Amino acid sequence: MSELYCWGLGKEGQLGHSSLFSLPIPQKCTKVVSNDKSFKIPSEIVSLGAGLLNSAFVTASGEVYTCGSNRYGRLGHSSDENEECSTFKKIQFFSIHKIKIIQISCGGTHTAAITEEGHVYTWGSTGSSISGELGQGKRSPSSCFEPLRVEALISEAISSVECGHKITGFISRSGNLYIAGKFMNLKNNSLPNLVEIPNGEKVSAFSSWKNYALIVTEDGEKTYCWGESVALGLGETTKAPVLTQIPQLDGKGVKLVSCSSSEHHPHSAAVTVSGELWVWGEGYKGKLGLGSEEDSFVPTKIESDETFVSVSCGGIHSGAISESGKALTWGCGSDGRLGHPRYLEGRYRYTYKETRPTRVEKLATVKATHIKLSYYHTMVLTQKDEVNI
Fold first, then answer.
1. Burial of 82 (0-12, 13-18, 19+ CB in 10 A)
2. Are 90 and 113 in contact (CB under 8 A)?
3. Fewer Cβ neighbours under 10 Å: the N or C end of the chain?
4. How many CB atoms lie within 10 A of CB 273?
5. Among 317, 291, 308, 322, which residue's Cα sits nearest to residue 388?
6. Distance between CA atoms of 252 and 234, rounded to whole angstroms?
7. Model pTM?
């Protein structure tokens, strides 16, 4: 049985606790809304999405629930952009059409989801006529308030999707990577573009935010960066007009990557199959987890006794899950986004930070399995029947 905890800034209702209050300590989400009726939150959750001011999750039965800001239609269940949605609300579209969703991702102002057959649906904002992150081509409106299938990918079964800032990456079951959105020199930014990987290699992981992306090959032996950022991992080089290998990660067996959800002070992270956690970029507020606020523009391994299985980069904080089920956060603690009690000490309210991965004490008695960070808040999924020691 899974339980969902959310904390941090809550001004748009993105924490899903039926209020607009911020929470500095993890609090369990307890209810959802469907057809204007309140129900107990589903007991099996399989995927999380953390957008700029919104949140989402997918249940084992394929239902999708969202909450927070509905500006540009990013919640997918109302055309009212001013709708207050502080409780997770079911997207009826998928149930009506008997569509089972298995994974979801939230970007800055848009959302994407994958069905069990490998079809993709997107909704929210394209930002402008030249953004195109929904991948809908010319038929896409400036804001899409209801999930719309990405017809351009009808011949490719998609296994995972990742939304960034005005960009969406789609990885097919055959290992092909497609990107839609305002990014680099894409031939048609409003439709998914097949990315040519050196030597025809297949892709297993992708992450992006504003102006840059990270791509991992199927065997985990090569990690590429692409775009413009100090968080590329290439040292003083801040521009990669073509896919460029990150030397420090060659042969490391990288299984997932994460890009910072911020255009300022960007940072990146990677987890390997052996459980190592590598970080790079700006060290603002200690969000690299290396024990200081110093920058590191090449990947640097966090020295820790923990074996890491996942990582998520927020805007000014970071979070990870260990193999033993610990939830750890670090970086800037303003707005309570880290979930640590020290934030409640008055003198730390606006200056509190942690410069190394620090266990979230509230979740010490449960096993954390998934973590997602946005710029402002944190989401962690736990297993109630598994106790962490």
1. exposed
2. no
3. C
4. 12
5. 322
6. 16
7. 0.95
Answer for the pair 287, 318: CB distance below 8 angstroms, yes or no. Answer: yes
> What order of strands is seen across the sheet that includes strand 296-301?
254-259, 267-272, 277-281, 296-301
User: Mean pLDDT score of the chain, rounded to an integer?
Assistant: 94
pLDDT tens sequence across 293-317: 999 999 999 999 999 999 999 999 9
Q: Is the CB of residue 118 less than 8 Å from the CB of residue 158?
A: yes
> pLDDT class for 188, splitting at 50, 70, 90?
confident
Cα-to-chain-centroid distance, residue 251: 25
d(CA 76, CA 54): 11
For residue 2, the number of C-alpha atoms closer than 13 Å in the C-beta half-sphere is 21
222: Cβ contacts below 8 Å, ≥ 6 apart: 201, 216, 245, 249, 250
Given a cut of 70, whether residue 347 has pLDDT beyond it is: no
Q: For a pLDDT cut of 90, what percent of the chain falls above it?
A: 85
- Determine the pLDDT at residue 130: 61
Comparing CA positions, the residue from 164, 195, 157, 166 lying closest to residue 179 is 195
pLDDT at 382 over 80: yes
User: Most distant CA pair in the chain: distance in Å?
Assistant: 57
Instruction: State residue 12's pLDDT score.
Output: 96
pLDDT at residue 250 in the model: 98
Q: What is the total residue count of the chain?
A: 389
Cβ 270 vs Cβ 318: under 8 Å: no
